[in-house]
Design a protein that fits this description.
Order of helices and strands: EHEEEEHEHEEHEH
Number of helices: 5
Largest sheet: 9 strands, antiparallel
Helix content: 25-40%
Amino acid sequence: MAFSRERLELRHFEVQLLYDAAFLFWGIGGVLAERWAHGPRFGAYSLNFDRLLLTKAAGDNTVVGACGLKASAFSSEEEGASIRQSERFALQWLDDCIKVLQPQHITRVYVKIIYSYPVQARDRIASTLFNEYPGLREFPVSDYKEVQPGITFHARSEGGPHDDLATGTFGLYGSDQVSSLFQSTRPDEGPALGLVYDLGRNFSGSKAGHAAAGTLLRDVIDQAKRDSWDLVTKNLMRVINRVGA
C-alpha cells in the first residue's frame, strides 16, 4: 500500500517563547486564567509563584498552555488536530501572553513538530531503513532483543540578529517508547514511523521586544513547518512507498 496522507498524523505540536524576566506577570496572571480556563480549549488551571499552567482537564496533558516569568508555551497532542489548527491556537495563546506580560527582550523561539505514521510491517520497515541508511548497520545491536532503527541530524545556521539550531530524528518507535516521546498516551498506540523535528532560534544579540514577538513566532513556526514537511516527503514517504506498509 502506498503512502496515504490520511494515515499521517500530527502527533505533537509545541511552541515556546523565552524572554528576559517579565515582571508585569506579577499580579495580572489571573487575567489569562479568567479568559482561557473556562473552555473550550482548557478546563483546568494551576497558578504558582512564577507560572500559570492551563490544561484541557485535570491530569489531561493533550493540550497545555503555560505562561511564566521567563517563558510561555503551548503544546497540543489532540487527536485529529491539523497543523493549521494547532498553529492557530498556539498563536492565540501566546499573543495573549505577550499582551499581558509585555516582555522587553525576546531571547528564543522554539518549535517542535512530531509526525507519526502507524505501521504494521515493522520488520520490513526496519529492514528498509537499514538499506536506505547503511551507516545504521555499524552500530553494535547484537545484544539487544529488538532494534528500532532511526537517524538523527543536527544543523546550525548563523547570520544577522539570530542563530538557528535544528534537530531531526526519523525512524521507528514502539509502544514502549511512547511515554518518552509524548506528554499524553493512548491505549491503542502501536508501532509507527515517526519524524521529530525541532527548531530553536536564538536572539541573544538582538533587542527584540514584545512588539516584534508575534512576527518572530510566525517566522520560526513557518520555517519549522517547511523543514519538517520537506523531511516527511523526502524520507518518510519514500520508506513507506518502498515497503507498502
